[in-house]
Amino acid sequence: MNRFPINSSRLLERFLRYVKIGSAADADSTTYPSSAGQLELGRLLVDELKAMSAEDAHQDEHGLVWATIPATIPGPLPTILFNAHLDTSPEAPGDNVKPRVIERYAGGDISLPAGNAITTRDCPALLSMIGHCLVTTDGTTLLGGDDKAGVAAIMEMAHHLIEYPSIPHGPIRILFTCDEEIGNGTDHVDMQKTAAVAAYTLDGSGSGELENENFSADQLVVRAIGHNIHPAIAKGRMINALRALAALIAKLPTDTCSPETTEGREGFLHPYHLSGGVGEAEVRILLRDFDTAKLDEHASIVARVATEIESQMPGLKFEIKRSRQYRNMSDSLKRHPQVVQLAVEAFAKLDIECKLGSIRGGTDGAMFSEKNLPTPNLSVGQHNIHSVLEFASLTEMTTAVAHAVELVQLWSNQRS
After folding, report:
1. Cross-strand pairs, 175
2. pLDDT tens by residue, 130-154
3. Out of 26, 48, 87, 213, which one is annotated catalytic?
């Protein structure tokens, strides 16, 4: 076990600094990154990396932040990359975050100033956090622990390793990506620049969790093309695209194959954004499944319903565009079992039972894995993500840093 304790006070200061910078991704933006806050946070991180003497710390032309922690022992040794993302979810307000620190959680529900509460009923994980230092919001915004908890943990890991050069490790590459929340996290990553044989995303919930599998994912954009005319003279002439999409959504499965009715390894299709008017309207639908082949089945449900509604509304036309998002990382990790095994061993060195899990979603690690950089996901104390009831456990974040420190030492025993 690492004999140098992790500086949890410094870690907390980092985290509070980062969450106050609004950096929500914007799916409707035409820029990359999609929000100025990501660039602002990235500049701050570069300054901090330079101040701690990390090598080659810079923000590239796409807003990605890179740095290297040099090896402390002679090589050749494999380079390991650690990744987190700078953006936060656009699904809840992300500006003007007002974090609140509970230094020692005593149990029970947590009332927030906005009048809402984090309850043990809705978040049973709270029952295991008695005594933890927790960070919440005021109940009006998300916290941004997804993934600023990961950003803070990686930054503290880097500082810790530079601070204690007697800890043996090989070269460590740091990469903070942008726009992960809208599926564009790796769009501008030069994979040769990573120069790594394996990577780890710190973008998970709880402590002691290692996710080596995730949903495969596609998106459908379904556009309804109708005909708009003044409602006073609309009889027999108006074709309402909004009504057509409403009918399509109503005919999609609700008792199965939806996020509200599935769990574990069950996939789903999820209409999540509707826009437009009478003449034209569109809905965006997520397709998700651990079995990639089943994405075709989910897409066929939508196509079948669209055909049915077209037959009921003469003159209406649906256009369906399907785009590939990401694939199950397990395909890559099965070819590189050492990447997961060393992470399991690092938990064992901390006397923490490792819980292997599957992500009902995706991370940049899924993209990296598909590009031949095997990248499982590690827990970093996020909870109730994408919600104004979001919170993070500093206790679990500190464990995440300690785990990363143990992990790089285990990798130092491997020869490239």
Report:
1. 66, 83
2. 999 999 999 999 999 999 999 999 9
3. 87
Q: Nearest Cα to 361, choosing from 246, 253, 299, 272?
A: 272
Q: How confident is the model at residue 362 (pLDDT cuts 50, 70, 90)?
A: confident
Give start and end residues of each alpha helix (H) in 315-387. Answer: 330-333, 337-349, 364-370
pLDDT over threshold 60, residue 161: yes
* Residue 61 bears catalytic tag: no
Class of residue 389 by CB neighbours under 10 A (exposed 0-12, middle 13-18, buried 19+) = buried
Following CA atoms 283, 241, 245, 297 in sequence, which dihedral angle do they give, to the nearest 10 degrees? Answer: -70
Express the helix, strand and coil content of the chain in percent, nearest 5 each.
35, 25, 40
Do 8-214+328-411 and 216-326 share a fold?
Answer: no
Peptide bond into 147 cis (omega under 30): yes
For residue 2, what pLDDT band results from cuts at 50, 70 and 90?
low
Catalytic residue among 26, 179, 180, 390: 180
pLDDT 10s digits, 85-111? 999 999 999 999 999 999 999 999 999
Q: Residue 50 burial (CB < 10 Å; 0-12/13-18/19+)? A: middle
Clarify whether 308 is annotated catalytic: no
Residues ≥6 apart with Cβ < 8 Å to 117: 109, 110, 111, 389
Domain ranges across the chain: 8-214+328-411, 216-326
pLDDT per residue over 200-255, tens digit each? 999 999 999 999 999 999 999 999 999 999 999 999 999 999 999 999 999 999 99
CATH of domain 216-326: 3.30.70.360
What is the spatial distance between Cα 95 and Cα 226, in angstroms, rounded to a whole number? 38
The tokens for 201 are 């995303």
3-state secondary structure of 402: helix
Q: Is 198 exposed, middle or buried (0-12, 13-18, 19+ CB in 10 A)?
A: buried
Q: Distance between CA atoms of 117 and 241, rounded to whole angstroms?
A: 39
> What is the model's pTM?
0.88
- 61 within 8 A of 125, measured Cβ to Cβ: no
With respect to CATH, is domain 8-214+328-411 assigned 3.40.630.10? yes
Please, what is the angle between helix 145-163 and helix 8-19, to 10°?
A: 140
